[in-house]
Design goal:
By secondary structure, the protein is an all-beta fold. The protein is 0% helix and 48% strand. The model has no long low-confidence stretch (mean pLDDT 88).
């Protein structure tokens, strides 16, 4: 069990992660192999080796199709990355994929970051 900043608890049951409220209501079913809390409003979830970005209502913000989501890896960074194979797409500060997976990691920043 892990308490999250948004008042939910992350639980692992039968090897799958889900989220429960402080009133013992299941908010998100136990289906994620792994998860990483990013903020109190979004998390990275992994199912069968694919990752996506979700809100705590279980809405996909970024579809569950990437090998890895690298969320704002640098201090004060406005961009994140979604990886497929050895190529990366850029995710802007609004959590939108703004490029295809066509870049090597650490590509230059541009106007797409806002």
């Amino acid at each position: 069990m892990q308490y999250l900043d948004n008042g939910l608890f992350a639980f692992c049951s039968n090897g799958k992660w889900g989220f429960v409220s402080d009133k013992d209501e299941i908010k998100i079913q136990f289906k994620y192999d792994k998860f990483q809390q990013i903020t109190d409003s979004v998390f990275v979830g992994e199912i069968n080796g694919k990752m996506g970005l979700f809100d705590y209502e279980n809405n996909a913000i970024i579809d569950l199709e990437y090998d890895k989501i690298i969320y704002k890896p640098y201090p004060h960074s406005k961009v994140s990355y979604a990886q497929k194979g050895d190529r990366y797409a850029i995710i802007n500060s609004k959590n939108e994929i703004v490029t295809e997976c066509e870049y090597p990691y650490n590509m230059p920043y541009g106007d797409y970051i806002t």
